[in-house]
Write a structure and sequence with these properties.
Layout: E1 16-17, E2 23-29, E3 39-46, E4 51-52, E5 56-60, E6 67-69, E7 75-80, E8 86-92, E9 98-105, E10 111-116, E11 122-127, E12 132-137, E13 148-151, E14 170-172, E15 176-181, E16 186-193, E17 198-208, E18 215-220, E19 226-231, E20 236-241, E21 244-250, E22 261-267, E23 273-279, E24 283-289, E25 296-303, E26 308-313, E27 319-324, E28 329-335, E29 342-344, E30 349-350, E31 354-360
Antiparallel strand pairs: 1-2, 2-31, 3-4, 3-5, 6-7, 7-8, 8-9, 10-11, 11-12, 12-13, 14-15, 15-16, 16-17, 18-19, 19-20, 20-21, 22-23, 23-24, 24-25, 26-27, 27-28, 28-29, 28-30
Length: 364
């Protein structure tokens, strides 16, 4: 489900340290569910205090539900999650100002995720309703070029799985690209050729999850040998070691009621803790990661704003910021370095329909 959303690589933060104390954050929103939202916003975050400054409008664009920054050049890309899917390209200026460069078709409906590959030459976008994957060259002026499309096939037993729904793209070590497909209960695996931008099936070409799981997002260990998959429909995290399933844990607390859907998942940069969010229950669950096996042990859960579609860990590694799509808030948590547990540090910040938060490291 298109409403149901990471920044290039789980915690790959495209963040701006505007001074030694602050980071420039960019926030993506849904403009068609909140009449007050204009598109992309920016704000300053102080990692010493956990304070988020007043929002400023950075760019007016439709449904920028996921953003990514170029790894070496001052360009920002946003999916436009609409029936005719597209990517909008921007130049990042001082004080978080964004200059619009152009809009390019993704070749499919409702793009919900995108990355810039590690070479900085290619933009890859997942078209959720289109059931396909777009590979787009990054042109010399920073715009996304014409898309080459890879079509997915298949379905699953859940009513929401009538066709393929790629929901995320993650590049790990060795040019390995992983794509969770919520519609077909699998993780599709490719090798990316950074010279030509071509994707070839890896070995194995896919990893299967139990029918009806609905894999949405994943987080991978730094070497790519451990993969943690958040399944939206089953509300679970499944752990894979070298493509072999070794553990599945529930994300739901006991006796939970109502409709619940897993959303985001991320590994703390220290590799010791894993976080996952659930909408409906509106919680973020904390797990400890066994350093030798990669297995998970639940450490606790905290309440957050309604509809925590996305969260991110800031560059200082001390804070987790959660976007509450349905409560129109960003909730800020301090991270206990000894346990990984979360502690809300201030009142939520009001933002219209926030669905993405990321930072940009660059000039003021």
């Amino acid at each position: 489900m298109r409403r149901a959303l990471r920044w290039g690589g789980s915690v790959a933060l495209f963040c701006a340290i505007c001074s030694a104390q602050t980071e420039r954050l960019f926030i993506g929103t849904y403009t068609d569910t909140d009449a007050h939202s204009r598109g992309i916003y920016s704000a300053l975050f102080d990692p010493n205090t956990g304070h988020l400054s007043e929002l400023t409008a950075a760019a007016a664009t439709a449904n920028p539900s996921f953003l990514v920054r170029h790894p070496s050049r001052p360009f920002l890309y946003a999916v436009n999650e609409e029936r005719e899917g597209s990517v909008s390209s921007f130049t990042i200026g001082r004080e978080g100002k964004l200059k619009f460069l152009g809009k390019s078709s993704t070749g499919g409906a409702a793009p919900c995720h995108l990355i810039v590959d590690r070479s900085g030459k290619w933009l890859l976008a997942a078209n959720y309703n289109g059931g396909n994957l777009a590979v787009m060259p990054i042109l010399p002026d920073g715009r996304a070029g014409e898309a080459r499309v890879i079509t997915f096939h298949g379905s699953g037993p859940n009513p929401r799985q009538k066709g393929p729904h790629p929901h995320e793209i993650v590049e790990v070590a060795g040019n390995l690209v992983l794509v969770p497909d919520l519609g077909t209960d699998r993780i599709v695996r490719y090798r990316l050729n950074p010279e030509g931008g071509t994707l070839a099936p890896a070995a194995p070409a896919e990893i299967r999850l139990p029918p009806g799981s609905g894999p949405r997002h994943l987080a991978a260990s730094e070497d790519g040998t451990k993969v943690y998959v958040a399944s939206e429909l089953a509300n679970t995290v499944t752990v894979f070691a070298d493509s072999r399933m070794i553990q599945t844990v529930s994300l739901l607390p006991p006796q939970v009621e109502g409709s619940n859907t897993a959303a985001e998942i991320a590994i703390h940069p220290n590799g010791q803790y894993l976080y996952a969010s659930v909408r409906g229950a509106d919680i973020i669950i904390v797990f400890a990661i066994d350093p030798s096996t990669g297995l998970l042990t639940r450490r606790g859960a905290v309440r957050t704003g309604a509809g925590p579609r996305f969260f991110t860990i800031d560059a200082s590694r001390k804070w987790l910021l959660a976007a509450g799509q349905d409560s129109n808030t960003i909730t800020i948590f301090g991270i206990d370095p000894a346990t990984g547990t979360l502690d809300p540090k201030q009142n939520p910040v009001n933002v219209p329909a926030p669905v993405f938060i990321g930072a940009y490291r660059g000039p003021k």
